[in-house]
Each structure stands twice: as structure tokens, then as C-alpha cells.
């Protein structure tokens, strides 16, 4: 999980706004937020590059406790500015012995002790505590990966609770190094079956460590341990509610947008931008002007379906702009997915600027702000993971509303959902009375079908073929009653042709792929296991109904190693 974003932004918590001129340096998200309005019971997670860091955040938020992730290498000033009740040091792929191993800042432990802050190290975080406080960490003789059994040891443990000595539980391990000698004042409170330190604590200093990952479902009692630690050991209050966040966001929006200023909202037809628009509309009313852009990359009949929903159910002021020719002309001949995303992001901004000029003529003042439905995962995937050598890290992909924005964008961004995961956005939408059917819509990428047609989107009739295939696939899923069981489903147009036989004739036609995944937040995903009869029926419908397709394949790859989208 990473929480670095490309623009150098000055933002208000939890809403973020982007300055007019965007600098592309990578900065910690801690600098994106001011925290005076945050509740005192904030749990900060210092991320050292673990693939599970976002899960810790989600698990804690599910307990109605606000949790925020910062880079593991954040400064002490950045950490203390959030006034956290608890700081969790995440796992990571590093060894504490590596010369460039990331670590918490100097003075962190003294600051935590002096302010009554509880500290919990998980996996690499535990090893970091041991090494930095004078203990010894060595490379383990035998590595511990996957499910392992541990046993609670010693006297009464705070982190496990009373009466747990001798209790055994299965946990998820993922480490090669291990603690050989503990710092003074620490005691082992759990060991693995191989004798390695599985948990430690120093109750007097309020510092604790777990060598395993309590946040994953493979540690069945992990949530019980986290819950006990937060509420019984740390005394955290479960007082974070989505209703409070909504009210706070409305206040921030009103403080950001002056009483005579107007705001543009880019509606994509998806859940995120719709909830963002509804929230901003609740805050500033008719000074919000929504625009829905048909960029020629939408799904089958998407424009008419979405506009009907906006007008009939949401009562949002929406202007529809058909810019298909403008986008497709710019994408002609482009095959690189990152380039496609950048071009699309630039064209969107050009249209928004033009829309702003038209509004200026009408209202006498040019809108200064642009609302977007950027989510936490968008930010995470658009930037290098913290806790790593950033010169060697890689962006997974640029989301058009994060990494795809041009440097000279003239509108300031308002991104009220930037700290939320998808399920949290849906919860907020329910509070805002967005129709449930709309909230259940599968995610659709900002660049649209441009990232589902591999290669040049303008070549031949690729877009039309893909629209027809995708419509058959999604409608079949609905007819089978599976739509709400799937996080995201779609078709992909592949840049290959295959030999087939149709109508007793040899064909050399297109190949399409079907992808459907289950997920909670889009950060990780498993492929959906359809029944064979369903796949057989869908394949037959596609090949019989869509001219130019003679082969259908299914993508059965999880995330990781793949992303959900193909580009």
C-alpha cells in the first residue's frame, strides 16, 4: 500500500484541494492534510511497504476507529501533527540489516513515550523496534512463511489478554529475519512452534510487537487481538462514523469554496463521482455544475442510461457533452497504455476549462474548482510505495484523476472521497440517499474502454465489437443473479486474431477475454469462479451474435500478480 501522490498539494482534511500549478514531486500524504478537526483517537499506520498495510487500515476502520496511513519515513513533525492515540509500524519486504532499510525518525520512541502513545510493530515493524531499541535481529535458520501455529507464553500478556497463557492459535507468518535478543524491559509473550519470537511487549513503555499479520483472514483470531489491543489496552474510542465524516466534509467544502464561487464536477456515471457530486451539491447547492463527457469510450448505451439516472433519480444539474471525435482523434495510433491515460486526462481538462468559460459568460464568474471522485486506492496505485527506495519503485498505473492530470491545469481540485475505500463510498452514498441500484454498479475506469481495447482503440471496429461483447457478458451476469456477488466484470478486446470455423467457412477473427473478480476494495482481488454452463452459454451468445469474434477466453488471474484492468 502506498500513500504518495504525484501533485504537490495543499489540502484540507479530509477533503483535499489541488493548487493551480501542479508540481510532480512525490510527497507524503501527511503533508496533504491538516488535522485540527480530526478526532483524538486516530490510529496512524507507518507504512514500510507491506502488501497488507491497506488491510490494517480497513480492519481498524471497520471497528469505527479512524485510521490513516503515512509513509514509514515520515518526519516526526508529520507524525505528531495528527495527534495519534496509537501508531502501528507495518510489515515490509526489507531486512533491518540492509543499508537503506527504512525506519521511523529519530526521537520517535521518546515522543511516543512522552505523549502516552501506544506503539505496535507488525512483522518488519517488530524487528525494527527490537533493533532500534538495542536488541538483536538475525537471519532465521528456518524461514516462516504462511500458516504457522503460535503459543501464548510467560505471565499475563496485555496484547492477548488475561487467561491466555498456553493458548495456541494459527497465524499468518511472512518473515526471514527473527528477534534473537530482546531490548531491556521487553518480554516474549508468544512463540512459534519453531521457537521464534511471535509476540513481545514492554507494558511500561506501551510498546508491543507481533511477528505475524493479525490483519489477514489467514490469522483467524487476528481481528480479536487487534480489537482487544485498541480498545482494552490502548483505550481507543469507537467514535468514527460516516455521518460525522459527511458533516465534516460539508464544512470543509463550504470553507474552501467562497459564497460567490462556482464549482464544476466531472461525472463519469460511476459510483465515486456521483457520490462526490451529491455530497458537494448538498454543501453548495446550485453553485455546483456537473458535466458528463461522452468521450467515445463508454459502454453500450452508457450515455442515455446514465443521463436518465441523473435526471430521474439524483436530480443533479448535469450538462452532457459529446466529445467522442475530440478524444478518438487524439488517441489514433496510440498503443502505450500510460500514454493513452495521459491523453485522456489532458482532453478531459481541456473540456472542463471550456465548460468553465461558458459558465463564466452565464454567471459572470469563472468556476475555480473541479470535483473528482478520487479514492484511496486511486492514490495508492498511482504512486511509488512508501518505505522503499523511491528511485527503484514503480507506479502501477496512472489514474486519469491522479497521475493523468496536466501540469498546467487551471482548476483547483476538490476530492472529498480521497481518504475512503469503495465500500465506504457506498456507505456514504446510502446516507446521501443515492439509489441503492446505482451504488451497486461495478467500477468503470476513468479512461473507459481505452484500457480495455489493447492497442490502438481507433483501429477497425474494436470499440463497437467490445461494447457488444461487454453488454452480452454483463446482461448474462444479471440474468443469472450474479451481479451483486461480483466486484467488477468486463470484456477485453485483444489485439490478436484466431482461426475458426463459422457457417462451414474458415474465419480469421477477433479474440475477446472475459474478466470477473471479487474484492472488498480493489486493492486485492480473486477471479470469480463461474459455473461451466454459464461460460458455455455466454461464449455461444458472443460468437453467434457479435460479428467478427470467433474465440472467447477467460482471465483467471488474481490481483496480485495482475491488476484488475488489463491496462
From TrEMBL:
<keyword id="KW-0067">ATP-binding</keyword>
<dbReference type="InterPro" id="IPR001674">
    <property type="entry name" value="GMP_synth_C"/>
</dbReference>
<dbReference type="InterPro" id="IPR004739">
    <property type="entry name" value="GMP_synth_GATase"/>
</dbReference>
<dbReference type="Pfam" id="PF00117">
    <property type="entry name" value="GATase"/>
</dbReference>
<keyword id="KW-0658">Purine biosynthesis</keyword>
<dbReference type="InterPro" id="IPR014729">
    <property type="entry name" value="Rossmann-like_a/b/a_fold"/>
</dbReference>
<dbReference type="InterPro" id="IPR025777">
    <property type="entry name" value="GMPS_ATP_PPase_dom"/>
</dbReference>
<dbReference type="GO" id="GO:0005829">
    <property type="term" value="C:cytosol"/>
</dbReference>
<dbReference type="GO" id="GO:0005524">
    <property type="term" value="F:ATP binding"/>
</dbReference>
<keyword id="KW-0436">Ligase</keyword>
<feature type="domain" description="GMPS ATP-PPase">
    <location>
        <begin position="240"/>
        <end position="441"/>
    </location>
</feature>
<protein>
    <recommendedName>
        <fullName>GMP synthase [glutamine-hydrolyzing]</fullName>
        <ecNumber>6.3.5.2</ecNumber>
    </recommendedName>
</protein>
<feature type="binding site">
    <location>
        <begin position="268"/>
        <end position="274"/>
    </location>
    <ligand>
        <name>ATP</name>
    </ligand>
</feature>
<dbReference type="InterPro" id="IPR029062">
    <property type="entry name" value="Class_I_gatase-like"/>
</dbReference>
<comment type="function">
    <text>Catalyzes the conversion of xanthine monophosphate (XMP) to GMP in the presence of glutamine and ATP through an adenyl-XMP intermediate.</text>
</comment>
<comment type="pathway">
    <text>Purine metabolism; GMP biosynthesis; GMP from XMP (L-Gln route): step 1/1.</text>
</comment>
<dbReference type="InterPro" id="IPR022955">
    <property type="entry name" value="GMP_synthase"/>
</dbReference>
<keyword id="KW-0315">Glutamine amidotransferase</keyword>
<dbReference type="InterPro" id="IPR017926">
    <property type="entry name" value="GATASE"/>
</dbReference>
<keyword id="KW-0332">GMP biosynthesis</keyword>
<keyword id="KW-0547">Nucleotide-binding</keyword>
<dbReference type="Pfam" id="PF00958">
    <property type="entry name" value="GMP_synt_C"/>
</dbReference>
<dbReference type="GO" id="GO:0003921">
    <property type="term" value="F:GMP synthase activity"/>
</dbReference>
Amino acid at each position: 500500500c502506498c500513500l504518495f501522490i504525484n501533485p504537490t498539494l495543499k489540502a484540507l482534511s479530509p477533503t483535499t484541494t489541488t493548487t493551480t500549478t501542479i508540481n510532480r514531486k512525490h510527497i507524503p500524504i501527511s503533508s496533504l492534510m491538516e488535522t485540527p478537526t480530526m478526532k483524538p483517537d486516530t490510529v496512524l499506520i507507518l507504512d514500510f511497504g507491506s502488501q497488507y498495510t491497506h488491510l490494517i487500515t480497513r480492519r481498524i476502520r471497520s471497528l469505527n476507529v479512524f485510521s490513516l496511513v503515512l509513509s514509514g519515513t515520515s518526519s516526526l513533525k508529520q507524525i505528531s501533527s495528527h495527534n495519534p492515540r496509537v501508531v502501528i509500524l507495518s510489515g515490509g519486504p526489507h531486512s533491518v540489516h540492509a543499508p537503506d532499510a527504512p525506519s521511523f525518525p529519530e526521537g520517535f520512541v521518546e515522543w511516543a513515550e512522552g505523549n502516552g502513545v501506544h506503539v505496535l510493530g507488525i512483522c518488519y515493524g517488530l524487528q525494527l523496534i527490537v533493533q532500534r531499541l538495542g536488541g538483536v535481529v538475525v537471519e532465521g535458520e528456518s524461514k516462516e512463511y504462511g500458516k504457522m501455529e503460535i503459543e501464548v507464553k510467560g505471565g499475563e500478556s496485555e496484547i492477548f489478554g488475561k487467561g491466555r497463557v498456553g493458548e495456541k492459535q494459527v497465524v499468518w507468518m511472512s518473515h526471514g529475519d527473527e528477534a534473537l535478543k530482546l531490548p531491556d524491559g521487553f518480554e516474549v509473550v508468544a512463540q512459534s512452534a519453531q521457537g521464534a519470537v511471535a509476540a513481545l511487549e514492554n507494558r511500561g513503555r506501551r510498546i508491543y510487537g507481533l511477528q505475524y499479520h493479525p490483519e489477514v483472514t489467514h490469522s483467524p483470531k487476528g481481528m480479536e487481538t487487534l480489537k482487544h489491543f485498541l480498545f482494552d489496552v490502548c483505550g481507543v474510542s469507537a467514535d468514527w462514523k460516516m455521518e460525522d465524516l459527511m458533516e465534516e466534509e460539508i464544512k470543509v467544502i463550504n470553507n474552501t469554496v467562497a459564497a460567490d464561487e462556482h464549482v464544476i464536477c466531472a461525472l463519469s456515471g460511476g459510483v465515486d463521482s456521483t457520490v462526490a457530486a451529491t455530497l458537494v451539491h448538498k454543501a453548495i447547492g446550485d453553485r455546483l455544475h456537473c458535466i458528463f463527457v461522452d468521450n467515445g469510450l463508454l459502454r453500450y448505451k452508457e450515455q442515455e442510461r446514465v443521463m436518465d439516472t441523473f435526471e430521474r433519480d439524483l436530480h443533479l444539474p448535469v450538462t452532457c457533452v459529446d466529445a467522442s471525435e475530440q478524444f478518438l482523434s487524439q488517441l489514433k495510433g496510440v498503443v502505450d497504455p500510460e500514454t493513452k491515460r495521459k491523453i485522456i486526462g489532458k482532453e478531459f481538462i481541456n473540456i472542463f476549462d471550456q465548460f468553465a468559460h461558458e459558465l463564466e459568460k452565464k454567471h459572470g464568474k469563472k468556476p475555480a474548482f473541479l470535483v473528482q471522485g478520487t479514492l484511496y486506492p486511486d492514490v495508492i496505485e498511482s504512486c511509488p510505495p512508501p518505505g522503499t527506495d523511491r528511485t527503484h519503485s514503480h507506479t502501477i498505473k496512472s489514474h486519469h484523476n491522479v497521475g493523468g492530470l496536466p501540469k498546467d491545469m487551471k482548476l483547483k481540485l476538490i476530492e472529498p472521497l480521497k481518504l475512503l475505500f469503495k465500500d465506504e463510498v457506498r456507505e456514504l452514498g446510502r446516507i446521501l440517499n443515492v439509489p441503492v441500484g446505482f451504488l451497486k454498479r461495478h467500477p468503470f475506469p476513468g479512461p473507459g474502454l481505452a484500457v480495455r481495447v489493447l492497442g490502438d482503440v481507433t483501429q477497425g471496429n474494436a470499440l463497437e465489437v467490445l461494447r457488444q461483447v461487454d453488454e452480452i457478458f454483463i446482461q448474462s451476469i444479471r440474468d443469472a443473479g450474479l451481479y451483486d456477488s461480483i466486484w467488477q466484470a468486463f470484456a477485453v478486446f485483444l489485439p490478436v486474431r484466431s482461426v475458426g470455423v463459422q457457417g462451414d467457412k474458415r474465419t480469421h477473427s477477433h479474440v475477446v477475454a472475459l474478466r470477473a473478480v471479487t474484492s472488498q476494495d480493489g486493492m486485492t482481488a480473486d477471479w470469480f469462479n463461474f459455473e461451466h454452463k454459464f461460460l458455455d452459454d455466454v461464449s455461444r451468445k458472443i460468437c453467434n451474435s457479435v460479428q467478427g469474434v470467433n474465440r472467447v477466453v477467460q482471465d483467471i488471474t488474481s490481483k496480485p500478480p495482475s491488476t484488475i484492468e488489463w491496462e
